């Protein structure tokens, strides 16, 4: 069995994701010591008030001294800056990972700074909410959710097994994927939905014929679902758009073509085309529910516990 216990874990960035990791690590006793570092003094103070770790510092370099595992949970555009700050302070043999929503760009930003002997393994938990900051995190966020690891050619098999076991201890199911493939898949399943949500809520907000109070008053579930996504952190999503540019533009081009098809079918009253598409998409939703990936279901995450038991 791979040991998932670490002597010292350094968490760089303590927002929704970093603080959820802190809560799980603490709950499960996966580290003798948790050190937390973040850029703003205010956030660091809040992390301390919430007792998310054992030690706190504004210096990422100081935080990683002697750490066996370093988890970087900052907006993807800040990856290079963090890599530069920590590189010369890492303990030989330490493992460095991240949780960023894009992978090729994070690798390009961080890998060149990693000294030899450091195990750098990028990762991405497919779990989160529209909220941000240390108060938004919670115990069990990763339970039953996928975590994708995107090893690089230098990745050592033993270190990879240890990181996989770490995420499994947090209740995740782990997949490995090529970084470029990850970026394409996430562009369609996560990045585009957020961009579409930002766009539709922006459009509604811009309509001169509809007042803001009507948008709020009549926001039935359809629009409401979009407003949740469109409330996501602006810094994080600006960075995702800028750092997964090519894959997002490719998917947006496909999306626009398909939207034109739908627009045409509506204009020409082609009900059969609309019916065929809506039937196909309904089946996708059913597959998601059957695969146990419907996070809104009351028993979501249960299968992860069932798997552990068996
Ligand atoms: N929010 C979500 O649902 C998910 C987010 N992610 C990824 O996780 C990462 C973190 O996201 P969240 O925790 O949601 O963000 P957040 O906004 O809640 O927290 C970000 C943290 O990074 C710190 N930070 C920002 N810039 C920094 C810098 N230059 N140097 C050091 N620290 C810095 C902030 O002080 C804060 O502690 C992002 O890369 C995001 O793409 C991954 C999965 C889900
Ligand atoms: O809140 C939601 O619906 C999300 O989609 C959360 C999320 C945001 C970004 C990621 O990289 C992964 C998950």
Automatic annotation (TrEMBL):
The protein here is known as Prephenate/arogenate dehydrogenase family protein
Q: Which InterPro entries has this protein been placed in? A: 6-PGluconate_DH-like_C_sf, NAD(P)-bd_dom_sf, PDH_C, PDH_N, Preph/Arog_dehydrog, Prephen_DH
- What are the Prephenate/arogenate dehydrogenase domain coordinates in residue numbering? 7-296
**PANTHER family reported in the protein's UniProt record:** PREPHENATE DEHYDROGENASE, PREPHENATE DEHYDROGENASE [NADP(+)]
Keyword annotations for this protein, in alphabetical order, are: Oxidoreductase
The family database entries (NCBIfam families) matched by this protein are listed as: PRK07502.1 (NF005694)
Q: Which domain of life is it from?
A: Bacteria
Q: What Gene3D superfamilies would the database entry show?
A: 6-phosphogluconate dehydrogenase C-terminal like domain (1.10.3660.10), NAD(P)-binding Rossmann-like Domain (3.40.50.720)
